[in-house]
Protein 1
Amino acid sequence: MLSKMEFHVDPKHIALMGIIMGGYLAARAAAFEPRISASILYDGVYDGYDAITSSLPAPLQEAVEKGNSGFVIKTLTDLMKSAPNIKFNMKHGMWTTGATSPYELITGAKKYSVKEILKNIKCPRLVLECEKDNSFPDQHKKVYDGLVSLQPMLKKHIVFTAQEGAEEHCQSGASAITNQRKFDWLDETFQIKT
């Protein structure tokens, strides 16, 4: 026989975590939703367009800036044939955003920026970063630096290292250490005694 279960949600202890693009979305939510008590930006994205274009070779960057969509599409399509990482990133990005071409993915990334809204996040914030993240280089630190806080305890930045085995994008292969640090931060933030 099933019994009726009751749940209690403490409105003072609502945390939101977003991973990768979810880190961008979680930042947006925390900027505009006062009921969020803490936010974890799990490899946060500061500016999608900058994240993509900064990793492109100079000729591709220039072609994107000049609007040369044909050159960008052909070059990236050719690269995707021999570079599985580029193929995955382009295909996954296109699928996620609904873009129909690599060029549309890159130019459409201009819509994804938290530059102007980070100052609105008032709840405690944790930004995670990995030492060798090649998917969103330098984005995490920009997110952390963009968070305004009069109280240093309201924001924290954790960098995961190769020594810990947690240096890859989203700390792949090191979920135990990542989860431990997130929960330790939440316990400290909410002052939970165990």
Protein 2
Amino acid sequence: MKNFTVIVLILLFAGSCKKQEEKYTNLHQITVEKHQEKLNAQYADSLSSPLKQDDRLSFEKLDFFPINESYKVEATLKLTPNDPVFEMKTTTDRKPLYKRYGVALFTLNEKEYRLNVYQNQELILDFEHRDYLFLPFTDETNGAESYKGGRYIDARIPKDSILSIDFNLAYNPYCAYNSKYSCPVVPKENHLPLKIYAGVKKFDKH
């Protein structure tokens, strides 16, 4: 009888863990889907869309990789407070001022990677965006499945040394849709030598 009770408790515990895991997965799915819906609404709106007029009129939705929770990672953020302010290259002559805020170290597919995390020096003067962080990156899908110039991820300064990076939220720079925009060029050191099958795919007309 005692052994039976132990077995029942183990099964109940396993079932509880499975429900918690499913709840977390569903929450992540919902979060990413809301992000995608917001992007689609923005791109369909004539007041906020970066699309050329002809492209916007025929626009239905962006093309995304399937949502995959394994592309959400918890990175250790190593701060670089002594780094100098520099002019970041863009697709035009514009050179906005940025500073490397830190280095994000993380594991993906059982391998270790790093991404430099930047902070726009103009945005830190804006109360709403003073904790905004910029994670531009390139990967091995660029030019094939995703935009050739790489993609961006937005983040906020974490309260501790752990920075959550969700590649499912990666989006294209505006210049992937319209050459009139000036977009930061992803620094060479932010190339990931693997294929990131997450986030926005390339625009089918480019």
Protein 3
Amino acid sequence: MADQHQHPHSLRDLVLYFLKLGATGFGGPVALIGYMHRDLVVEHHWYTEEEYKEGLTLAQLAPGPLASQLGTYLAFLHYGYLGATLASVAFVLPSFLMVVALGIAYKMFNGLPWMQAAFYGVGGAVVGIVGISSYRLTTKSVGDFTLESFRSKWLLWLFFLSTFALTFISQAQVLWVFIGAGIFYMLLKSPPDWFTRSKANANALWLIASAGFWRWDARLLRQMAVFFTKAGGFVFGSGLAIIPFLHATVTDYHWIDEKTFLDAVAVAMITPGPVLITVAFIGYLTQGMPGALVAAFFVFLPAFLITIIIAPYFKRIAQNKSIKAFVQGITAAVIGAIAGSVVMIAIKTFAPDRVHVDPVPVIIAILTVISLLYVRKMREPYVILAAALIGIAVRYLL
């Protein structure tokens, strides 16, 4: 790590930049990493193209929110652990405060007809957004939906389809299945040297792999800390990827209901900064401010720790074929579970009683997909706003 006096920016400059980005950076992870490249590399020349690409590679290889990890790595590169910590907090803080404020308003005014109507329209848009996210993650990390891809990457597609079915049937994500897929693919494609030297190690490895505002419930907060740590530690590539994982707050833990879950996703879409901050909304509705703090802290903690631990050695680690194979295997399994969760969410949104289909959210979801795929410069917050207006119009005019 270079001497900080050689840098064309101070630590204060960097922290203020991430504070501003967290407060004004709409558009999701892809837009946020684009802003960082434009501002930090092209315009200010604070970082070189090579440093930016190294950070982006680490963010893609490691679990956690893409934009947040990239920012943490860049700050660490010039200002070490203090810089990484301050920049990470600055990046998350504005959207955290906005989401908590929306959580307070949601609790106070959710009974008003206009707010219920707005979120009625938003539900279909959320399905469309997470559906696109799931599709893009699949084509980027597993492969295109072509016969050649199915043939050449058949094992990754097997992981994908297996966890898709498992998630859809059980309505839960099985963490050890993801880890097992990663280990199996690593051992098959690029086993580490220590494994090839001793087959006895394989038996031990597989044995391990199988094994009110300030009112709160301490037991529930501990449960939330464990859940959000797992969620933040096993999602690769994009904050949007964690959305279906968080559906377990409805199906497994029953902290919130289906409608509130979709509203929480909508809140994340209409606020700037990392999409992952939606957990603060869920945490606030579940356990007030302590719940929001616990959810936000623990969901970002794994990515932060992984980034600052790996950063000093990343140049060497990035070239390790075993690490790459492990990430490929676990990513295919995780994305399969994401796709299965998206289908579950769609069914519950389009047909709440599992019998009659509500055409309004279906139409909104279709329009959302078309808009985001084919309308240039269309962003999620605009789609969410339009969906809310449609919901209000439908409820009041029809």
Protein 4
Amino acid sequence: MKPLRCLTDLPVDGFEQLATDWGQRPFAGRNLRRWVYERRSHHFSEMTDLSGKFRGQLSEATVVRSLGIHSRREDDGGTTAFLLQLDDGQRVETVLIPEGDRNTVCVSTQVGCAVACVFCASGMKGLRRNLRAGEIVEQVMLVQESLPETERVTNVVVMGIGEPTMNFAALCQALETWNHPDGLGLGARRITISTVGYPNKIDQLASLGKEFGLAVSLHAPRQDLREQLLPGAGKVPLPDLLAAARRYYQKTHRRVTFEYVLLDGINAFARDAEQLCQLLRGFPCFVNLIPMNPVDGLPYRRPPAEMVNAFRNILEQSGIEVTQRKTRGDGIAAACGQLRLREEDAEATEVG
């Protein structure tokens, strides 16, 4: 049986066309869009300003949404990992990270990942498929509905399972839906895309003409080590990657963030920090240091706190602005892909 079309898979400006295709006036499409995004309705029966005929057409051929929450885990600080069920039985993760007056949602774009960063759970079982645009969009909507009525999702980071730029068309449509005033209305400066860094894709993101944040997963200050840590992306020459990041800055006027996961005994030595300073010298950027979040089945560990502090001090003394991600979500398997991996392994064990 062919699956029903999901309304969140429509572009923001596609609702009016859907209505006119089915013999309705354009305003019926605008009303439908408001029910989906402003009123967050789940059922056609609630959409009382649509004609009975239109609601009947919709219920026969479409669904409002496609995602469901399979399970969720919350730590003492409020970080919540959601394992989401897709309509074909696959699962992805979304994480809510509350911090002061900010509620940030970390969103996935693929089921699995082809980049296969050696320290990440997302790619341990390969890439299964891309998410549809609506499946990306709905992650933010589901998290919003989990919050108290007085709170709102304030920020989105596209750095969950998958490499976003390998699902470029769906990513761009999701960005538009989140940002558009007739969609979720999130400001572009509140949305950040994290990528391992393919220069042509970075250029395409820049060409969107929006002030989205860009975070490049660097993780190594030299080519040989980056190829070792990021098998699916490390062969991109570092000078080409840095040049694309500079073009992004010049086009959007947004300083690029370089993410750097610190792995004990591998890339967290003083010499690595010094090489990173040389690589980024003169670049108006941030470095986000991420002490390794341990992943089941992988040998990599977080460096001692004094080593992390020493690495950070070297960067700051060279004039680089540094942020350091707080260690959160260890107890709930909130590292990218880890909750999904644990659930699948547990279910496989039960079946076996």
